[in-house]
User: Fold this.
Amino acid sequence: MPGKTILREKLNESISSVLPIALIVALMCLSFVPVTADLMLSFLLGTIMLIVGMGLFTLGDEASMTQIGNHTGARMTKTRRLWLILALSFILGGAITVAEPDLQVLASNVPHINTAVLIITVSVGVGLFLVVCMLRILLGIQLRWVLLGCYIVVFALAALSDAGFLSVAFDSGGVTTGPMTVPFIMALGVGVASIRSDKNAEADSFGLVALCSIGPILAVMILGFFYEMEDGTVAASVIQSYADTVALGGGYVKAIPHYMYEVATALAPIVVFFLLFQVFSLKLRKLPFLKIVIGLIYTYVGLVLFLVGVNVGFSSLGTILGAQLAIQSPWLLVPIAMVMGWFIISAEPAVHVLNKQVEEISAGAVSEKAMGLSLSISFPPTASHAPMAKGSMKVAVIGPEATPPESKAMAVKILG
Assistant:
């Protein structure tokens, strides 16, 4: 059956992306970086969940998020009401960003800015620059000039910004590379650009993610001029050891409801918007509508499995691995980081979505393989905020002094 064939293809893609990372980590753990057996087993279980989750996510995303974005962009533009297009763009940009899991993680780990304040600031920044993106597409303004002007402002503000806000500002730009934001924003641009009939329409559908990444940077730096920093400490990650296999299984089971809620929160704004849009404007036929609904279910299940695998299996071992390397073999950190960065980007769901859409829009002129190779070589800073990269944070200190003597937990300070 075609459905089973497509699912098999997606699973094969995820295996080819994740397996190299698992083999590199396993080789290091079995040769020169000792870790406990429970963490190693947890990592292997996380690898399985990661493979299945990525396969389901990429399958569901193509059937749902991309289609919703395309339909929304095309229908908005057909209304010919500029104020409506811009208002919906701002609302959608803000809503998707508020629900982005990556932003929740970033905000909870910034000690000197209130979590709610940072989330709202970043969301407003993305919403405003999604409006800029729509204006650029509709008016046919060249991307190079918009980027040049925006980055002149960015670097001018950077020279005046407080160091505590400057780093957070540029980190905040990474939320636009999350698994929710990338497919929707790109598809929205494709839908809007599809209404234009000139030769530059397809080219103008690109660049939305790049522009939307500037919004949070500017918003947080501007916030720094008015907001008084709060007292806080560096975030700490506590790695729990598992006494036996039952405790290990319990750790995964306890994590599932949390990520079910997190992913449901992330998807809810988009689902509600789509249902209202379907009732009042879109009015898709039954079969296309059901395909999108089924795609949303695949997306939900895939993201839950993916995030559980990354945060329970990958992140724990990655934190310990980084700390041990920093202590025992610091000279290995740079080459290992380069190799891991290559494969982490190839395993990132948002990157798979981006590569696929670029290949389709460019009619194969820019292949999915070429895009993936280019991104893996560069390993851009914004991609480090995506879920796959959370297991490769920089580790500064590790030791038992931060935890009670009777505890088997290990406290690790996270700098990234």
Summary: Strands lie at 236-239, 395-399, 410-414. The first helix runs from residue 2 to 31. Confidence is low (pLDDT under 50) at residues 233-237, 380-416.
